[in-house]
Amino acid sequence: MLNALSIRSFVLIDRLDLEASTGFTALTGETGAGKSIILDALSLVLGAAADRKQVRSGADQAVIRAEFALAPDHAVWAVLEENAIDFDRSETLCLRRTVPCAGPSRAFVNEQPVAAAMLSKLSESLVEIHGQHSASRLMRPATHLDLLDAFAGLTGDVRTCGELWRAYEAFRQARRDLEAGVQAVQEKRDWLNFAVEDLSALAPEPQEVETLTAQRSALLQSERIRDSVDEVSSSLGDPRLEEALATASRAAERIVRVPGLEALEGDLSTVATATAEAVERALIELVEAQGMVKDLARYAGHDGAQLESVEARLFALRAAARKYDCLPELLPETFNAFKRDLALCDADTEALNHAFDEEEKARTVWKLHAETISEARRKIADALSDAVMQELQPLQLGRVRFRVAFSPIEDGESGNRGLERAEFEVETNPDTGFGALKSIASGGELARLSLALKCALSQSGETGSLIFDEADQGVGGAVAAAIGERLAALAKDRQVFAVTHSPQVASAATRQWRILKETDKSGQTVSRVAQLDDGQRLEEIARMLSGSSITDEARAAASKLLEAA
Q: How many angstroms separate the CA atoms of 490 and 450, rounded?
């Protein structure tokens, strides 16, 4: 509930601090005294649009602060937690709004800056303001299904319906994903068949390209070695070389055998002997070299056919890699991927059928639960209509008819709350047709309709403070008394405020605030609020009965009203 409201420099209010309590509080005062200003200030701190004209003349800024005492399980705490706003469930909730003369307005929750939209979100479960031009969430069709479910005690069933719907959506999305994958594979099935057959014939093996590349390199080297061996063998095998060395050896030997060579002066004999020996060794080395070359030729074998085979295989693998847009080394992996995709065409047909079955099972469970909720809703809708109609009669709205209109959810619309939408509709005059509350009801009717609805829904577990702005406009006597009685009944388990000009409504309240307009020392007009004691309440209600001149008869009538309440 609202604990306190603090207003600074707002329109005609210079400084105002109000402490609220449980029960029914009536706000009274002469027309123009500023009752609506207090509601405007409260609306502002609850997220309404700000206007610089609201700042009191001569002030730098307007500041509105509202403090609420809430239960530990109140819905507001979950909203704060979702938005990472610090709070303590054992303490009060503080909302603050500042409107400067220049610059944007600012909003705070527990002194932490937030967007004004956050205040609006929080206010939905804190305060409802019902008036001629604003009937809060009761007039918003989007809330009607929730209100009906709360009235019917279906909130838990609807929560389960949401869980079943989300499970169904999960199965549906899984089926769609699988279906998309199968469809994509089916579209290229012919190509996959060709690719798998083509690569099956090629049969690429893991590491095959690397092995063949190494083999080819070695075979190319062996070919070069064999060519060199052949060249050496050809050169050393030339018969003219051996014949020339033999001729040279014989000639050198004849020199050595010349008689008397040793007797000649100088080293001719020594050099001739050395030459003959060298030529003879060369001839012997040639023969040995020719033998070694033959041995080398045996060890340096070259298989030209194998090289051709290796190169042909590498060419085939690289060509296939270009065809299927992958590296030659990755060809086996690509082949396996093609086989897996092709297998999907057949294997996932069964998986897809299973996915369809799971989706349909989930949908059936959700729909059966939703149909049960729909049946309960239609039964309780009649009960709600009867309850509202009973409340309308004493509020001088006996000609108004009320109903709950249902419409099925559309294709693609979430079924987390069931199979239908609901909207409260009224017919204000016979045979004029039903329509939306806000569009058909007049200003005075709208506030009384809100009151009737709140009374009918009073046991639905709703919490929060209720504010009614002149729900008694245009009525008096018994109707005003009926309004007062209903406001007092609503206030038994919630906090209720009513701005009223009716003495019958004011007398039904448990406490009363009087708003009055004064002129301060500086000559400026200001609005003040006074909490009235029993004697002051008597005088105020007498004033409301008789006008500015309070008579003894008015006081007596006021006393009877207070005693009757």
A: 12
In this structure, what DSSP letter does residue 399 have?
A: T
Q: How far apart are CA 556 and CA 548, in angstroms?
A: 16
For residue 332 the two structure tokens come to 């086996």
- Tell me the residue type at 98: T
Q: Which of 442, 338, 454, 444 is nearest to 387 (CA)?
A: 454
pLDDT of residue 309: 86
Type and span of the H or E element at 383: helix 331-392
Q: pTM for the whole thing?
A: 0.64
For the chain, the structural domain boundaries read 1-126+509-531
pLDDT digit string, tens, across residues 310-329 = 889 899 999 999 999 999 99
Query: Rounded CA gap, 368 and 362, in Å?
Result: 10
Three-class DSSP labels, 410-454 = CCCCCCCCCCEEEEEEEECCCCCCCEEHHHHCCHHHHHHHHHHHH
Longest dimension (CA), the chain: 185
Query: Would you give the DSSP letter of residue 258?
Result: S
Residues 6+ apart with CB under 8 A from 283: 242, 245, 246, 249
Assign domain 1-126+509-531 to its CATH architecture. 3-Layer(aba) Sandwich (3.40)
Residue range 39-48: mean pLDDT, rounded: 90
Other Cβ atoms less than 10 A from the Cβ of 80: the count is 20
- 487-518 confidence digits (pLDDT tens): 998 888 889 999 888 899 999 999 999 988 88
Contact between 483 and 475 (Cβ < 8 Å): yes
Q: How would you class 203 by CB atoms within 10 Å of its CB: exposed for 0-12, middle for 13-18, buried for 19 or more?
A: exposed
Looking at the DSSP bridge assignments, the partners of residue 499 are 27, 469
140, exposed or middle or buried, with CB in 10 Å at 0-12, 13-18, 19+? middle
Task: Out of 26-30, 175-179, 375-379, 454-458, give the one with best mean pLDDT.
Answer: 375-379
- Distance, in Å, from the CA atom of 219 to the CA atom of 208, rounded to the nearest integer, reads 16
Q: Give the N- to C-terminal CA distance of the chain in Å, as an integer.
A: 23
Q: Over the stretch 140-173, which tens digit does the pLDDT of each residue have? A: 888 899 889 988 999 899 999 999 999 999 999 9
Residue 154 makes CB contacts below 8 A (sequence gap 6+) with: 373, 376, 377, 380
Length of the chain: 565
Average pLDDT score over residue span 201-227: 82
Measured CA to CA, the distance from residue 138 to residue 483 in angstroms comes to: 18
Token code pair at residue 214: 């190494």
pLDDT at residue 444 greater than cutoff 80: no
